[in-house]
Amino acid sequence: MSHRGHVPTRMCVGCGGRAPQDTMLRMMATPNGELQVAAARPPMGRSGYLHRSVVCWERFAARKGPLRSLGCSIGKAERRALVARLKDGGADAKVREDGAQTRT
Length: 104
Ligand SMILES: [Zn+2]
Hints:
Bound molecules: zinc ion
Mean pLDDT: 78
Order of helices and strands: EEEEEHHH
Low-confidence stretches: 95-104
Strand content: 15-25%
Strand order of the largest sheet: 4-3-5
CATH topology: Hypothetical Cytosolic Protein, Chain: A
Helix content: 25-40%
Number of domains: 1
Radius of gyration: 13 Å
């Protein structure tokens, strides 16, 4: 029922796998190097995507080196903080709200 043309896929910054964009968790880097879970459409292109899977979040937090999709190097502490927020469920719930809004 949800075949509205072509659904773009995005690469998960945790495992490197691909999935339809709208099934993934989106995050973006702020100019001061913080990470935040982004709403359905971030203002600019500097965003990264994660599967909705704790395994991928952990891999993302443990990664070394800059994240090309985010256009900058995000410190491990900052990534861990984001993952902690995701596990807490707060950020995830917010994203789901946004998703519901765009869908209805
Ligand atoms: Zn993944």
